[in-house]
Amino acid sequence: MKNILIIIVLFIFLKPLSAQNLEGKWLGLLKIQGMELDLYFNISKKENNYSATLDVPKQGAKAIPVTAVELKDSILNISVGAIGMTYFGILKNDSLVTGEFKQMGTLLPLDLKRVDSESMKLVRPQTPQPPFPYREEKISFKNIKDNITLSGTLTLPTNTSNFPTVILISGSGPQNRNAEIFGHQSFWVIADYLTRQGIGVLRYDDRGTAESEGDFSTATSFDFAEDVRAAVTYLKNRKDIATHKIGLIGHSEGGMIAPIVASEPNIIDFMVLLAGPGLPGKELMLLQKATIERARELPAPLIERGQMVMGGAYDRIIQTKPSDLSLKDSLIAYFRTNYNNLLPEDQLHNLVQQISNPWMMNFIKYDPAPMLQQVQVPVLALNGGKDLQVSAKENLTAIELALTKGGNASFITKEFPHLNHLFQSCETGLVSEYGLLEETFSEEVLGEISKWIKMR
Fold first, then answer.
1. For 176, which of 13, 51, 100, 188 is 20 to 30 Å away at the CA?
2. With left for phi above 0 and alpha for psi between -120 and 50, is residue 63 left, alpha or beta?
């Protein structure tokens, strides 16, 4: 999920850590404009000075010179002049820095974790390896309404017939068909596992991403739902697909998109929600913000203040009609007042731009309940107990209430206590931990999904 945080700089008296040493490799996950970028700082020390380079693998960038690295009394400052980037952080211990990334007016949270050379190899034991005991086909299908062609991969079992087939729906941000992040390729892992279990799987590149046409930046969740409908139509036109056994598996925002499609009668036959939202957008964003900030040990008064300020901003968005062109000016004035003109203008305008783009405005205004109430097909809703982005208890409860209210008697909700938002076994659930874990997707959850689908 997109994660918008207001960071106010506090003056904190810190006790210096003994034997502070930054030397080594540091890994961070940056969520910016719907994308997730893995950043690697390679820091070395000579006498009393540090030097470093920066790698951004997803952008093909390696060994970008770091202009300055300074560590004093647990306060870390990094600047990369070549790309106009700065980083301010607090060294919490010898393996964790919590801080803020800034580039061209954009200010975002970024935690860094120390990794060793072996970790940098990104060992991913679950990544599928050939030969595969199933048929794999590169496919494309047309979204006629938006006049775009989407590209993907279809995997089909070869040792059975009349099998169920599922469509994988990704979460927020432009993602390729494998939902690749930090070397993890969760959708490929899911597709491989399910197809080996006799279940066909269609996964595709998001519009405007990899080999798919379209403009991702202007699309909302309802536009992405049109892409899913096009995928369903494609499967129903194939002679080797059982058209009465087509289902959806949506992760994160994909778990919000799936019910939009499934709410229509005779479209699909079952649905799996993986960390799918059940709360209205405003409530979800505020809960996500507070949960992540508590995990990052921000002071309670700062968290409470952020809830009040962002809640007020979201209310303005909810009350604004699409034709109202004054929203951005209204939000700028609102934030200036609430932050006593202390928020720099570039950060102020960037914040307003982020929360007033079409996707975010639609997300904040959207309540999943009415669509869920219309879903009459069997539903399996799963969440990780350490998910900081879509909290399990609140969202699973909301999903259950909506399905019950709509008269759906065929659903199961389940929480897995030790899993994060990506369904990895974890310690903290923080985004900064994702890339450090070898597990891509819980085998237990894969088994649960497979068993449930085959019971349908």
1. 100
2. left
Residue identified by tokens 């300074």 is: 70
- Assigned CATH for 134-280+366-455: 3.40.50.1820
What number is the average pLDDT over the span 266-283?
Answer: 97
* C-alpha to C-alpha distance for 160 and 197, rounded to whole angstroms: 10
Domain 24-121 has CATH 2.60.120: no
- Contact assessment for residue 216 and residue 34, using Cβ atoms and an 8 Å cutoff: yes
Is the alpha carbon torsion for 179, 184, 186, 188 positive or negative? positive
**What values do phi and psi take at 39, rounded to 5?**
-110, 135
Cα separation, 75 vs 87, in Å, equals 11
pLDDT band per the 50, 70, 90 thresholds, residue 6? very low
- How much is the pTM? 0.81
* Tens-place pLDDT, residues 365-387: 999 999 999 999 999 999 999 99
Task: Answer whether 362's CB lies under 8 Å from 222's CB.
Answer: yes
CA distance 201 to 163: 11
Q: What is the largest CA-CA distance in the chain?
A: 70
Tell which wins on pLDDT, 17 or 436.
436
The answer to whether the Cα torsion of 305, 365, 375, 213 is positive or negative is negative
Percent pLDDT > 70 in the chain is 93
How far is the C-alpha of 128 from the C-alpha of 160, rounded, in Å?
21
Sign of torsion, CA 397 177 423 434? negative
118: number of Cβ within 10 Å? 8
Average pLDDT over residues 83-110: 86
Q: How far apart (Å, rounded) are the C-alpha atoms in residues 447 and 449?
A: 5
Structure tokens at 64: 């970008």
* pLDDT at residue 232 is higher than 50: yes
> Phi and psi of 418, rounded to 5°?
-105, 20
Which three-class secondary structure state does DSSP give residue 60?
A: coil
Better-scored residue on pLDDT, 206 or 104: 206
Residue with tokens 């970028």: 37
